[in-house]
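fwd from M.: "can u put these together and see what the complex looks like"

so here's what she sent:
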Amino acid sequence: MATSSSLLSCYILLSIFFFSLLIEKNFLVSARELAGKHHVIDVKSLLPSSSCSMPDKSTNSSRLNVVHRHGLCQSQARHDKSSHGELLRRDQARVDYIHRRTTNSNAHLNPISDSLFADVPVSVGYALASNDYIINIGLGTPTKYFSVSFDTGSDLTWTQCVPCVNCYTQKDPLYDPTQSSTFTDILCNSYYCTQLNRFGCSSTSTCLYEEVYFDYSSTNGSLIQDTLTFSSDIIHNFIYGCGHNNTGYFGQVDGLLGLGRGAVSIISQTAQLYDNVFSYCLPSGSNTIGYLLLGSSVPDVNYTPMLTNPYAPSLYFLKLIAICIGDTRIDFSPTGTVLDSGTTFSRLPPSVYSTIRNIFKNIMAEYPTAAPLFSLDTCYNLTNYPNVEVLSMSLIYDGEVIAYLDGSGIIYEATISQMCLAFAQNNDDSEVVIIGATQQRTLNVVYDVANLKIGFGSNGCK
Ligand SMILES: *[C@@H]1O[C@H](CO)[C@@H](O)[C@H](O)[C@H]1NC(C)=O
Ligand SMILES: *[C@@H]1O[C@H](CO)[C@@H](O)[C@H](O)[C@H]1NC(C)=O
Ligand SMILES: *[C@@H]1O[C@H](CO)[C@@H](O)[C@H](O)[C@H]1NC(C)=O
Ligand SMILES: *[C@@H]1O[C@H](CO)[C@@H](O)[C@H](O)[C@H]1NC(C)=O
């Protein structure tokens, strides 16, 4: 790890800072300003507001709105607002799972396809965690709509389904394949069935699936195909799980959309239509709207190579080379970096984290501290401070691709009396770095699987 001041990209930031100071002298700079040495954050802007800001009208036929699960932009209010402690505990469980999965020592974890009936120890399929962001997809003919979370860390798409042996509470009526004129079963010797983590054959030779997530939440049922309506695009013969037995914590969403790199993911299934590319912008707060787009028509994006880890082939890896905080650039080379939509807070090597924390503490020295919030150990009580000034931050990927963090990607708002640095640290410097959803907020993020590159651009959404 090397720390340097006023070099390379951080230097560019510094000059923009002087410029922005001049023009913004008498204004409250919003947390969304991307350039500059400091962010002046309107503290209340980080807390949930009472109205939902609607998105601009620039829609695309393969573009869906993304909203926060607990936000006002969510048409049906959800009442399972889990506590911050619970959110962080689940986040850590997902991180632990990714760490286990991405290291050699876990070669014994399930091979790509196990038979449901093979004598294997209970193994965890893929990581599903906070998944705070949800979209509405249509299934069947006539189209019924379902709100599902999406996950770059897993492949299979599924919804709870009739007949239901075991279902958790959801807001929408269950998907009922018998009510759809376009539904068909999938045979257990078909390609997609054999690509599942765990599959089996029913007495009529149709495909059965089972997916177990890192916290032992599970879904079990039939693999089927039906029409998927994604925004106004129609995807025929989409293959997904009809979950008859669903147990554990799924946050009351109707199911999950799998955006991983494996064969059954929506990206692989629609490769002919969208060239193996998808893009999203995760909104900054619970009352703003982002997007999920199949394909990419996103301008002003800079690309860094997409990498693969043989132990976790469905996950998206890239190479983080430095972090800038204020005018300090910290160069380092982690063993690997996962870009993950389902981890909430990024996990950094302890040596890098402590440097960032020290710089952050210095700049925040005038504010009263607050108790740590689980893995977020640097918190402040900002009750009496309407605006705070924090250093701007950016993540720098291979090829000097810079991703500027939104204010909401630097400070996490538990309550106004407990606002924390929105990063956590790994157990040791050898563990893979995880870039979570919080540090992706407001960015255009393009996953170009065909050309093995990942793009970042600013101002994708609010
Ligand atoms: C999956 O669900 C079916 C009933 O829908 C049940 O017969 C089967 O035992 C379940 N498998 C597992 C592993 O839970
Ligand atoms: C439902 O799934 C759980 C977890 O896999 C399993 O223990 C249970 O036996 C299943 N129930 C049925 C009826 O298949
Ligand atoms: C929508 O996105 C697709 C896929 O990237 C692109 O080809 C198309 O031009 C876009 N359409 C509009 C109206 O922006
Ligand atoms: C935060 O600061 C305010 C104002 O000083 C104080 O009244 C309140 O008790 C503090 N809250 C916590 C949780 O420390």
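replying to her w this: The chain is about 15% helix and 35% strand.
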